[in-house]
Amino acid sequence: MSKGHKEGQFIFAKDAKGQEVAPGVVRKVLAYCKEAMCVVHEFEEGAVGELHSHPQTQITYVLKGRFMFRIGFNEKEVAAGDSMCKQNEVKHGVKCLEKGVLLDFFNPMREDFVKV
Asked: Which among 56, 27, 26 has a CA at the least distance from the CA of 114?
């Protein structure tokens, strides 16, 4: 597991390394501990976060841009200032309609995001 962000109380943007996780999608893991994790996902227009599920509950806040989100059987367009709650094991996915940034919070943390 990567040590950098977990052991620090302050995580500075200049130190957060981006990783392309899908075409047009860059993930930056920010602060985290065993109980919670904060992650930024930067999307290019047209980029897709494939339909998936995981054991963590996830709350997403749209910092900028427009997105089409699917959560379970519901699909809605969201924009800056909107937020979504994705309960554990509920399938969800997203398509970016206008270049944007999502701020994600996970409980508990996503260990798969920090494995080296």
From this structure: 27
Main-chain phi, psi angles of 77, to 5 degrees: -85, 135
pLDDT at 2 over 70: no
How far CA 68 is from CA of 4, 7, 21, 112, in Å, comes to 33, 35, 19, 25
Number of neighbouring beta carbons within 10 Å of residue 108: 15
What would the mean pLDDT of 5-21 be, rounded to a whole number? Answer: 82
Q: Please enumerate in sequence order all residues whose Cβ is within 8 A of that of 1, keeping only pairs 6 or more positions apart, or say none.
A: 111, 114, 115, 116
- H or E stretch at 34: none
Pull the structure tokens for residue 25. Answer: 């999608």
Residues 6+ apart with CB under 8 A from 109: 32, 33, 34, 35, 36, 37, 56
pTM, two decimal places: 0.91
Mean pLDDT, residues 55-69: 98
